[in-house]
Amino acid sequence: MEINLISDTVTKPTKEMLEVMMTAEVGDDVFNDDPTVNKLQQKVANMFGMEAALFFPSGTMANQTAIKLHTQPGDRIFCDKWAHVYNYEGGGAAFNSGVTCKLIDGERGMFTANNLKEAVAGRADIHVPYSRLVCIENTTNKGGGACWNFDELIRIKEVCQKNNLQYHLDGARLFNALVEKSETPEQYGELFDTISICLSKGLGAPVGSVLVGSKKHIEKAFRIRKLFGGAMRQVGILAAAGIYALDNHVDRLKEDHRKARMIEDVLSSLPYIKKVEPVETNIIIFYVSDDLDSSVFIKKMIDKGIFLTSMGEGKIRIVIHLDFTGEMLDKLLAELKKIKL
Ligand SMILES: *Cc1c(COP(=O)(O)O)cnc(C)c1O
Fold it and tell me: Quick check: CB of 196 below 6 Å from ligand 1?
């Protein structure tokens, strides 16, 4: 039994999901003519109470399109120092949009309205780039699946409004936050100008992300997606998986969170573990003791058929997902207790 916990992107489509993909009605989506894609886009727009949505091949492309549509070359955007848009999108903000990122020194990938106020100060100075956009990430990836406090997100919005800044949410794992905090997509739709969500992470679709926003923003996004080379043809086959995922795989994210907390409990009790970051959703970040080498730990787990990743600086990451069964959980917990380092 191989247990792959390197990411929640490793899931494979279920039999039921494959069934709806095989029978999806399709058309040429470059002409807006794929009924299943249109259905998915309408569904996501409705969920968030926003006007329109657009299907994307990846979360990276959805975020990069959002940055492009809100900015002009030479502008700057604000994000946390751990943000995916800055660290893990290949430098795309600079390459695709010609913008710089003003990094905010937050906690676990999250900052406060006051941090943002300080970062935007002096924006009238001619030496300073035009400030255009604030990017938030919920849940935070590098921050170990942490969820933002919604009241803080409202306070940040107020700073955006005072300073004429657009507000984008990288919601690759937003549904994990929603089920955990009993929040709704509409609450987020009301607050943000654009939101990207991933269907291919905890929701278990093989491919796909959606960008949601106003009609005007999504029309612009449609052109930018073409410019970035991301327009696809009979892509309803993939959109069908997304619709299925939204209908069937949202509530069950709680199950992933429950398993993650059980792993947190065991890790916290083990003598060779120095620290476990507080687990809020489906990501567990922990450190082995200073006298041990995290790469040796990872290697020994691989020998048992258990795959985890290093995030640098001694951080080890486990991500729980749809394909991680109860039986796998039992085996993982047993091996963690048994391992000799
Ligand atoms: C995974 C992820 C993305 C983008 O995902 P793709 O792999 O490009 O689909 C964006 N933001 C965050 C926080 C992510 O975890």
Answer: no
29 vs 53: CA distance, rounded Å: 13
Same domain, 189 and 57: yes
Domain identity same for 237 and 264: no
CATH of the domain at 268: 3.90.1150.10
141 lines ligand 1 (CB under 6 A): yes
Nearest CA to ligand 1 atom 6: 59
Query: The tokens 């795989």 sit on which residue?
Result: 249
Ligand 1 neighbourhood includes 137 CB (under 6 angstroms): yes
Of 75, 74, 17, 3, which is closest to residue 199 (Cα–Cα)?
A: 17
Q: Looking at ligand 1, which atom is closest to the CA of residue 83? A: 13
Residues 316-328: pLDDT tens digits?
A: 999 999 999 999 9
Domain match, 56 and 178 both: yes
Question: Final residue of a domain: which of 214, 248, 282?
Answer: 248
In the chain, the amino acid numbered 35 is P
Give tens-digit pLDDT for 193-249. Answer: 999 999 999 999 999 999 999 999 999 999 999 999 999 999 999 999 999 999 999
Total domains present in the chain: 2
* Boundary (domain end) residue, out of 248, 275, 307: 248
Long-range contacts at 192-195 (CB < 8 A, ≥ 24 apart): 192/136, 192/167, 192/168, 193/70, 193/166, 193/167, 193/168, 193/217, 194/66, 194/69, 194/70, 194/166, 194/168, 194/169, 194/221, 195/48, 195/50, 195/168, 195/169, 195/171
Candidates 255, 267, 271, 272; CA nearest to 321 is 255
